[in-house]
């Protein structure tokens, strides 16, 4: 007994999240089991409802930075004073910083572990050959290799000192640096130190980075011009959190940036004719803008449409001129988690005020910066898309929290930072000097501006951990940008956001669970952007409903504004605020690679037996008469073969006039005895059922994909009417593989067709097994012409050597 009690005590001591539930007999699988063994236990910092706990804390980091851009050398030289406030309950003997530019060092972990031919950094790479097919190395990859070989990238850290001037011991570990403090930083205390650094700016088009410069050699200025997009440009403090301590995971390129909030004062010295867009607001407009530009900027706050701050004519004059000296732009930003900027003499700049009555920032300046290469595409759509984004996203979360929201054109396809985003689409220059753009470029611009500006809400404000869980911001933001996209123009062919868009990924062998760590994901776009977005559409439009989903999402945003949520906080908040148990949904959609494939195998139409032999037996006789005649009897008739009983009189008897369905007194007495044996309530229920003569339908379903999901039915009736029925996913709770459902309709309501998921809401992988009766599968056939072999032995080298040109119309 003592031993048993001891073992029991050990079992109870195991944390709930470490205990699994295992089926050891039979094949039952509980897909509605709670996530208790998966999610971390609630704590005083993160409670069971998904809200911050009463002892929630996070660190604060303030920066004062001075930096200079050397346009000729394409190099940044800078110095920062960092003020670190320890709000944690722990004493910290050292601090960790991120040195993200070190990812471009030739011996960085990212470079050394970049698998040949595998998924990894942004941009095209290689295609591995097989058999006689050669391996293909893209020109972009060749260019990248040459840029990495020709340049020395990464941080040059020249000093790490206390404010008193004493050197602080520091150790660089790849993209991280540990700074040892003279004494542990106690809870509630603050420390300050200075750091000096420089680095060569990468050419973004060559290296495929998240920031860098782009060169325009054909500009009218001698030597051309550059656009500089600067991000991950200064040593930033690593997060120290309640759930992980120091987040000292190497930057490998995929997992983005987890940062602390703080205040920034940044002085940026650039060529005198450059225009800067940056996180924060300009503190010295008199020193960097003309009087006319300052007047326009003020007028833009009340403008009904975007208006130019820097006009096309001013940008063209700067683009063609030669700068004299430098200017220093001063910016300040409060309660932001990062700082990014862009600088170029090529920039036009427009702005429009967005009103938020009662908000902390009642007027937000939506602004865009772009070169002439952006053309009318940018003039027409960039700032308009910023304005639209603020209005849609604020409806789902909170008032936009900052004074500016900026879209900047440059070499980066799309990246986000507090108050500023980098977006890539441009126009095409034609031979006649005009600029035009495709529908794809228009969609790209509107879509990427919505997406990147949306990121200022998630994760620049709701500060999720991008290094571990890309889906927490990219998935939620992809969902909201698709909502905003359909509200912008529902006729635009938006993609990669709805369940129907994710079918090919969800049935593929390359799929990974959404909860996979960011740097381990193979198909980041499908896994971290598309599949979570599809999940939220499914929750909003099908499972929870818009009102409750929107309420829950807004509550999540409100709770975690300027805080750091984890997946458990999101899952718990969505359940708690919507009043819906969703553990089955999170488990299936986020933790497995199951897909949706519900097949409708069969439908039985049932009629209630009246038990009255004078009714039921004639009906059974009529049903028998409707059965096909035995084939042989029909063939006998065709041959004219005689029938014995007809050819021989006297062979008939009782059974030639009465069949097995003939009603007898015994049948009638049995019916009377049955009725007399019923209790009053049973007799009433039975009589009503017989009188109504309803149609009973039993529908048999199989879950072939493994992912439990509501069964959505499109029902068509004989009278031409239709109905849509949503059966909750809980129908699978006792058997997740197969289930039957009874539907009852009045006598005159006869089913003629049933379609599972008729509006393609759930991303069902096989639409053909959704139809009952099965439909003829629609498809197409296309004629093609055989292509001649491209191998050298198949070519007419004799004719080519002689310069002959074959007549392709004749053999």
What do these coordinates show?
The chain has 811 residues and is α+β, with helices and mostly antiparallel strands. 28% of the residues lie in helices and 25% in strands. It is built from 21 helices and 34 strands. The strands form nine sheets. It has a seven-stranded mixed β-sheet with strand order 6-9-2-1-15-19-17. It has a six-stranded mixed β-sheet with strand order 18-21-22-23-25-24, sandwiched between helices. It has a four-stranded antiparallel β-sheet with strand order 7-8-3-12, with no helix packed on it. It starts with a helix and ends in a 10-residue tail after the last helix. The model is unreliable at 1-19 (pLDDT under 50). Residues 1-18 form the signal peptide. This is Peptidase M1 membrane alanine aminopeptidase domain-containing protein. Residues 787-798 have a biased composition (Basic and acidic residues). Keywords: Signal. It comes from Erythrobacter ramosus.
